[in-house]
Amino acid sequence: MGRKEELQNNNVLSVFSDSQNNLWLGLDNGIDFIAYNSSIKQIKPLQLDGSGYTALISNNRLYTGTTGGLYSVPLPMADLSFSKGNFEPVSNSKGQVWCLADINNQLLMGHHEGAFVIDDNAAVKLSLDKGFWNFLPLSATFPSAQIIGGNYNGLAFFDFISGQFIQSKYVEGFTESSRFIAVDKEDNIWVSHPYHGIFKTYRTGNGMHSTETYTDKNGLPSTLNNHVFKVKNEVVAATEKGVYVYNAAKNIFEPSAFYKNILGSQSTRHLKEDAAGNIWFIHEKTPGVIDFSGKQPAVIYFPELKNKLLSGFEFIYPVNGNNIFLGGEKGFFHINYEKYKQTQPVMKVHIREVTITYETDSLLFGGYFDHSNDSILTQDEKK
Length: 383
Fold this sequence. Notes:
Elements: E1 12-17, E2 23-27, E3 30-34, E4 40-43, E5 52-58, E6 61-66, E7 70-74, E8 88-89, E9 97-103, E10 106-111, E11 114-118, E12 123-125, E13 132-137, E14 146-151, E15 154-161, E16 164-170, E17 180-183, E18 189-193, E19 197-203, E20 209-214, E21 227-231, E22 234-239, E23 242-247, E24 252-255, H1 257-263, E25 270-273, E26 279-283, E27 286-291, E28 298-301, E29 316-320, E30 323-327, E31 332-335, H2 337-342, E32 354-357, E33 361-365
C-alpha cells in the first residue's frame, strides 16, 4: 500500500493497531488511518473512472458500470472487499453505463449508446436505439421468451430466439424515459418518471397496449419524485411521503400500512430486497435496511455513508449478507453487513465532571476517585 492507494506518502515510521483492529500510520509528515477491519470499505481503484452506477457478479467476476465504461475483476474470496486484482476494462463499453442484468444466462448492459450483451469481456450491441436504463424478464420461467428494456424513449421488447436477444417492437404511443420499471403479478408494466408521475401499461384485447397515468390526483403525495420497485412480489412506489401501494379496487395509490409502521412517512428514494428478505432503502442521502432476522423488523442506518452515495442515481446490490455494493460519487462502497451488525462498537465514556446549573452552580463530581479503587477507575456508590 502506498501513494496509489491514497497514503499521503510512502515513508511509514510507525504502525499502531487500535481496539477495533484498524491501523494508524505515523508518517514522516502526517498521520494516516486505514480502516482495515471496517465492515464498510470504498472500492475506488485507479482503473474505475468516475461514479458507480451499477454492479453485477457473473461467472465469478465482479462487473462495475461507471461514467467511464464497464470494468471487471475476478472474485476468489468470500468477503469480496479483501479480493485482490486489477479492474480490466470491457472492450467497446467506453462511456456512460446505466445498468447490468443477468437474464437467460446472458449478461446485458444498458449504456448511453444502447443495449449490449457482454461476451468474452467485450460488449456486443443488441439495439441501434440510444440509452437503455434497465432490462426485465417478462416470464418467471427459464429461459424467458421475452424481456423488456426501458430506454430514453419508452419501452422496447426483445425476443429470445436461438440463444440470442433480438429487438422486436416498442410499447405503442408511450415515449416517456423509462428509468424505473416493474412488472406486477397481472403482467402490467409499471413505469415511473421522477417529474411526470407513474404509468401503468397493459395489453388490451386486440394485443395492443394502453397506458394510464397516476399523479397526485390519483393518491400519490406528489407528481414528483416517485420511484416504482418490486419488493416481496409487490409493486410499490417510493415517494416523498413514504412508501405507497396500488389499490386495484379503487385504482389509486395509498400509503402502505406495512411500511408506514416501520419507516413512518419519511421520504424514500430506493428500495431493494435481498435474498434473506431484508429490504434495503435510501432515505434522503443515507442508506438503511429493514432487517427481518429478529422477532420484529428492525431498522438499521449506515450514517458512515451519509452524503457519499450517488445522488439521483442511487444503486444497491445485495449479493449476500457479507457483500452489499452501493454506488458512490466516486467508485463504489462495500458493506459486510453480518460483520457490521456484530462489530458496532460499544461506547465507553469516562465521566470527568458533573455539575448542576440552576440558580447557583454546584459541583457534584470533579473527576477524582477514591484512592482505594483508583486503579480500576470506579467509584463506590457511597462516595
